[in-house]
Specification:
It is a single chain. The protein is an alpha/beta fold and about 425 residues long. The protein has two domains: about 280 residues, Alpha/Beta hydrolase fold, catalytic domain (Rossmann fold), CATH 3.40.50.1820; about 140 residues, no CATH class. It has a nine-stranded mixed sheet, with helices on both faces.
Length: about 425
């Protein structure tokens, strides 16, 4: 038994031998392998917790994956969200690992509270099913920020960390591009808000009580840019508008509406519900490139962040990098949602903390965000467990070799790029005065 696991067990009031009775079964999603058992629990704070155990899994020699989901989802937590996460990550159960994931106690932004809920899900699993041989913390998308924070807050709870498609710049840096999108979009399209609607600072997201819907916002974006139409069906003005926006903000057109959604309703939650109406985002000093560059930079709305709001957001979500756990990351180079350059921010964070030697970053030649190709995940888990158990730190080349070995069982879909290194965030998001 390793030292970290011994410390974890000593801190728990209920050890494996004294685990509670197994809770009632819940129907497993259809994607899970035959023989798996699923359970649905609710923790003391009201979060729903899904558990999946592969056939024959025992805690004495089994591995547990504790999942931190992305989002954040707005609205109250519901079991359906956890079921969807379990369905998406069935690959972990197929590979023989137990899985537990929390819906979090509430919707909306809050990295620390979600990290606490993730730790609570781990403890709840152990209470009912016993302490596993190893525990791996897995964060996906915004859940990558949650998991990286949980690794710093609860270092004795995990043996290793896996971060996939992670939003790893913390709240104070990961969302600068979305403020840029709001101000550039408004300069070009002038319809969010419309001239005859109440005007508000765009960092606010949306005023409380606004009747704007996602469908109406998508209609306005399409009217200005033609983004939902085939390129040949767009007017000359729409093509020009779209070119200015995409060149300045450097996002793919297929995710334009999604990013505007986040920069509207997520900003509304973050600013008004979590930060007391104070502004954590600024774009003073940011220079936007592309067509109509001079006019754009002269005319775009400019904001300066409130230092108190920045400090509060940083306390909740920014990362210190003080993690000595083996850490693997995976990111698609053309991720349309969490740009790959956020991995550079995380590496810089770990370097400043002196822990970069415990970080290996892997990249894939893919164009998705929510889920990449099947064989890559068991390859990452195998590499991480070898690092945990034998101190065999993997290289990206080694992960690629492992991935090819899993193609027979999971499909010929390895797309890893062992030699890829992302550019600094400044190559994608204009630096600004803070």
């Amino acid at each position: 038994m390793n030292v970290l696991r011994s410390l974890r067990l000593a801190a728990l009031p209920l050890l494996a031998a004294a685990a509670h009775a197994t809770p009632p079964d819940a129907p497993c999603p259809a994607t899970l392998p035959r023989g798996a058992h699923c359970h649905l629990l609710q923790d003391a704070e009201g979060a729903w917790v899904w558990v999946a155990l592969p056939a024959g899994w025992t805690h004495d020699d089994g591995v547990l994956v504790v999942h931190a989901h992305g989002g954040p989802t707005l609205g109250p937590p519901a079991p359906k969200r956890g079921e969807e996460d379990l369905q998406r990550w069935a690959v972990m159960v197929k590979a023989g690992y137990a899985w537990v994931g929390s819906t979090y106690r509430r919707g909306g932004y809050g990295v620390r509270s979600a990290a606490e809920d993730t730790e609570r899900a781990r403890a709840l699993f152990i209470e009912h099913f016993g302490a596993p041989r190893h525990t791996v913390l897995h964060g996906q998308s915004w859940g990558g920020n949650v998991a990286a924070k949980a690794a710093e807050l609860f270092p004795r709870s995990w043996d290793g960390v896996l971060l996939t498609s992670g939003v790893l710049g913390g709240g104070t840096r990961s969302y600068d591009a979305r403020l840029d999108l709001r101000v550039v979009y408004q300069y070009v399209c002038k319809n969010h808000p419309l001239p005859d609607e109440p005007q508000y600072p765009l960092w606010q997201g949306l005023p409380s009580g606004s009747p704007l819907t996602r469908a109406e916002l998508a209609r306005r974006v399409d009217a200005c840019t033609g983004v939902r139409q085939p390129a040949e069906a767009r007017s000359a003005r729409q093509r020009a508008n779209l070119a200015v926006i995409l060149a300045a903000v450097k996002i793919p057109e297929r995710s334009l509406i999604a990013h505007l959604d986040w920069a509207t309703w997520l900003f509304q939650d973050l600013v008004q519900e979590r930060l007391g109406g104070r502004n954590p985002f600024g774009n003073d000093g940011a220079h936007y490139s592309g067509p109509e560059e001079a006019a754009l930079n002269a005319g775009v709305l400019r904001y300066r962040a409130d230092p108190q709001a920045v400090a509060q957001l940083a306390e909740d979500s920014d990362l210190g990098g003080r993690v000595t756990l083996p850490t693997l990351t995976l990111h698609a180079v053309d991720d349309p949602t969490a740009i790959v350059e956020l991995e550079s921010v995380y590496r810089e964070t770990r370097e400043r903390a002196g822990t970069a030697d415990r970080l290996v970053q892997v990249f894939s030649d893919e164009h998705e965000h929510s889920y990449l190709s099947d064989p890559q995940y068991p390859a990452l888990m195998s590499a991480l467990l070898a690092w945990i158990e034998r101190d065999a730190k993997p290289t990206p080349q080694r992960v690629a070799e492992l991935c090819r070995g899993y193609e027979a069982a999971y499909g010929k879909a390895c797309k890893l790029l062992p030699d890829y290194r992302p550019a600094p965030l400044s190559a994608r998001v204009p630096p600004r005065d803070h």
